[in-house]
Amino acid sequence: MTAPSAFASVSALVRRETSMVYDEGKEYLVEARLTPLANAKGLGLEEYVARLAFDADERRKVIDALTINETSWFRDHTPYQAFTDAMLPALLEERATSRRLRIWSAACSSGQEAYSIAMLLDQHLPSGWEYEIVCTDISTQMLDRVRAGRYSQVEVNRGLPATSLVRYFSRVGRDWEIAERLRERVSVKHLNLAAPFPMLGTFDVIWLRNVLIYFDAETKADILRRMLPMLTPDGYLLLGSSETTLDMPADLTASWRRDQIGRVPAYRRASAMTLSRTGA
Ligand SMILES: C[S@@+](CC[C@H](N)C(=O)[O-])C[C@H]1O[C@@H](n2cnc3c(N)ncnc32)[C@H](O)[C@@H]1O
């Protein structure tokens, strides 16, 4: 990008609207992702950036273009293993009366995380149980993709076992479409993690994976503080493999208890766990 002021202005816009930090050194990325948008409007990059101040539609496109949507099926594998082997059996006991589970995929990208969980629930929930997976993201483009539930051959090649492809997908043209019975358990909502959460109810498992890395320490701490009441007292929060609450302010390390499940740290509400351990 030629003008540092244009980069500064885009970086401030992204920070204001998503809390994602686009530091100096990311100019190449901004240039690569915004040039096609500028071209589509017949503008140079700097003119396009100037236009953003008064064009909300283009601002939304810029946010969509600058979010990092990297994801894959059963990403990192071990959290899904821990979910099936430990969290799910515990929840099946604890929810034996309601027979209902609620899961939140809290930065869902194009939906591979949510549909991976849906496949596991489809296989492991006894009959008569209900489940709902709420998918949220700041990118409207990604939410459209979750709704569509369609994936290219390249995308299904990333982590999806062949048996699951056969069992849960049908071919539509050159793409693969996820089965209706999984799609109807997944709902989609636009949500900015850095802003106050709307009323979503509480969740038994929250997947907040590979998104905190894009925020500064203060925003991360704020999100983790507001996540606490979104989780049922005996629920689980899963973070990405390079994300942790250990480097957080003392109130957070005290309120989130870290339970090691196999190779995966699962975060739990410390006060609720203390109460249940003392039988209170
Ligand atoms: C790298 S993807 C992670 C996807 C998935 N959780 C996984 O682990 O594979 C990060 C996602 O976070 C979303 N995101 C970034 N900033 C956000 C914000 N402030 N609020 C909600 N979602 C955000 C991006 O749009 C993107 O889809």
Automatic annotation (TrEMBL):
Annotated keywords: Methyltransferase, S-adenosyl-L-methionine, Transferase
Signal peptide: none
Annotated SMART domains: MeTrc
Keyword Transferase: yes
GO biological process, one term: methylation
UniProt domain CheR-type methyltransferase: residue ranges: 1-244
GO MF entries: protein-glutamate O-methyltransferase activity
EC number(s) stated in the UniProt entry for this protein: 2.1.1.80
Nuclease found in the keyword field: no
Class in the EC hierarchy, top level: transferase
Reaction catalyzed: L-glutamyl-[protein] + S-adenosyl-L-methionine = [protein]-L-glutamate 5-O-methyl ester + S-adenosyl-L-homocysteine
PROSITE patterns: CHER
Entry-linked PANTHER family: CHEMOTAXIS PROTEIN METHYLTRANSFERASE, CHEMOTAXIS PROTEIN METHYLTRANSFERASE 1
Record-given protein name: protein-glutamate O-methyltransferase
Organism of origin: Nocardioides aromaticivorans
